[in-house]
Design a protein that fits this description.
mainly alpha; elongated
């Protein structure tokens, strides 16, 4: 769980420090989703010229969000479509595995 990672080792917390931690820009759900997408794209075996650059951007992404993050925009688009087609992303996270209805889908059919 991301909160545990963020709070582990936090010392001398004040309300301001806690608020700063709450705004941590790291998005752990994409640790699972983006590698799945990249693997599916590679397994497809067809290098689509329109997807080559976006896939490279996602491959190089550090899973952090910012106003200027193109990777975050791409990941958000993918995540929203994933949820619409396959269910809740949270069901894929290790913490939640086996607790939901979502199966690992065959991506990029």
């Amino acid at each position: 769980m991301h909160a545990v990672k963020v709070l582990t080792g936090a010392k001398d917390l004040t309300i301001d420090k806690l608020i700063d931690l709450a705004y941590d820009p790291y998005l752990p759900a994409f640790e699972k989703l983006i590698p799945m997408l990249l693997k599916a794209y590679d397994q497809k075996g067809i290098a689509d010229p329109e997807l080559t650059e976006p896939m490279k951007v996602l491959e190089d992404w550090d899973y952090r969000t910012s106003k200027e993050s193109v990777a975050m925009s791409l990941a958000h688009f993918f995540g929203m479509n994933f949820m619409r087609n396959h269910g809740n992303i949270n069901n894929l996270l290790e913490f939640n595995e086996g607790r939901g209805q979502c199966q690992l889908p065959l991506l990029l059919n």
